[in-house]
């Protein structure tokens, strides 16, 4: 069962503001971390790492998962594994976090920004083919809010051009597309266990490997270019510098924290789904009356309630709602600034034909509501009450 976290002042009645996120702890984190410390095995790839990685592999349906220091670093590993070189192009949505692009820019590759669909806010699969050139080396999809991209169409284009697909699955742990777990659909996937994600250890991530061809090299690149993994398994009697690489291993102390969360996955998800469903139901009439768009979940996409958003009409509609909620003690926030017209996006990237008008509109209007496991009924009520008091579509004045 989820325990309600007491308010900072200890009083459930205090009208403290409802935070956008309150990092959830499942209960065993401290004990597991203490056990890791006592064992003396605090480096990467210890016993807690093995157990946590097995959970990640099971949740993503992948044959193999390697814990990393972040999703950013897992994405960097995908760039190394795909041997990206300066001038290579990587197709990705313009509406995503900077790490999706930076991982490839670090290798000198050029992000090619494609617009998103107005309904799911995922990369618009119908625009991908026009963005393909002879230099395209990867297509990176982001399952925004954990709602699956149109993967059949994405994989069809990718297959026809022989381009590997990578999933930035930072939002999507536990989600699925037509019965297939998110993270299992590309050749490689990247998970995030950042404090703001459904399952967290402060800072952490995982590389999910669906194509066995990458398995051995991934292990080496992640271990400073050495075959230390094989050495520890007794497969070689010394380990050597085998390849390029870096230090992408998560400490077993953090893996211990992460394991406690992964073991509580069902409870965490139940807590988040309850909030998501309450918003979706209780804001439906208000949204319809005010011309506000709520999340679209296509048939065949099961999502892990990573975030709940509203898109009010008009360019300033989002900011107005965020301000209104703030005045009523609710912390709502916007989301990604478009990458294609950001300073670094202009410097390093290219915009696909047609530009990214949907991304620009969505980024300007986005409002994300508080959503976390352990949110109290009272907090949900307060958010809903505050939202429905807002008139997003102002009556015409004469
Ligand atoms: C959070 C996030 C990341 C980065 O995750 P870190 O673990 O903080 O590196 C990358 N991509 C997306 C889409 C994210 O939401």
Automatic annotation (TrEMBL):
This entry's Enzyme Commission designation comes to: 2.6.1.59
Swiss-Prot/TrEMBL cofactor(s): pyridoxal 5'-phosphate
Q: Which domain of life is it from?
A: Bacteria
Among the Pfam families in the record, one is DegT_DnrJ_EryC1
Per its record, how is this protein called by name?
Answer: dTDP-4-amino-4,6-dideoxygalactose transaminase
* GO MF: dTDP-4-amino-4,6-dideoxygalactose transaminase activity
Q: Which family does it belong to?
A: Belongs to the DegT/DnrJ/EryC1 family.
Q: Which organism is it from?
A: Actinomadura algeriensis
Q: Which UniProt keywords apply?
A: Aminotransferase, Pyridoxal phosphate, Transferase
Does the UniProt entry include the keyword Transferase? yes
User: Which InterPro entries does this one have?
Assistant: DegT/StrS_aminotransferase, PyrdxlP-dep_Trfase, PyrdxlP-dep_Trfase_major, PyrdxlP-dep_Trfase_small, WecE-like
